[in-house]
Amino acid sequence: MSSTAAVKVLGIGGSLRDGSQSERALQIAxxxxxxxxxxxxxxxxxELVLPxxxxxxxxxxxxxxxxxxxxxxxxxxxxxxxxxxxxxxxxVKNALDYIEDLRDDQRxxxxxxxxxxxxxxxxxxxxxxTLEQLRxxxxxxxxxxxxxxxxVNTAEVKFDEAGGASEEKVVRTLRxxxxxxxxxxxxxxxx
Length: 191
Prior knowledge:
Blueprint lengths: L7 E6 L7 H15 L3 E6 L17 H12 L2 E9 L2 E2 L1 H8 L16 E8 L2 H17 L3 E2 L4 E4 L14 H23 L1
Parallel strand pairs: 1-2, 1-3, 3-5, 5-6, 5-7
Antiparallel strand pairs: 3-4
């Protein structure tokens, strides 16, 4: 990729509920990436319904192949998970497990890519522990978590359909996460 081409930032996350709070948070973070010059794409909800990951089974569903190819082609990733019972959702965790299929690539796993992370939960404890788990998984996949991560307590903050939230600081944080992913990817592509 030349330094004049836009970097690609992929958003992964949300829940099976259309327009979920975590999906809206992801869209705000992707908007920040777009503002910084990235081309963005999104895999969420029903597109993340995948068979349980099993490395011993080489066949992949159409959704799994799409996810793997999208991650392979991304310069940066943004992952937003709902927090369920103090942990990331099984839907998002299973999707991240599929990144194992990139182990033999020239750029394995998430190697050399910035990964923006946010957790959305009804309560601070689940939001914070889910973010920490996302950071740990990102490190294990050789990704570079952005300096800023987002923990959103939906008992206090609500997202709207227009791309905003009841707390402007949450919108600013999510957009900054998207910008950090893009800026890191732009520097990495130029090097």
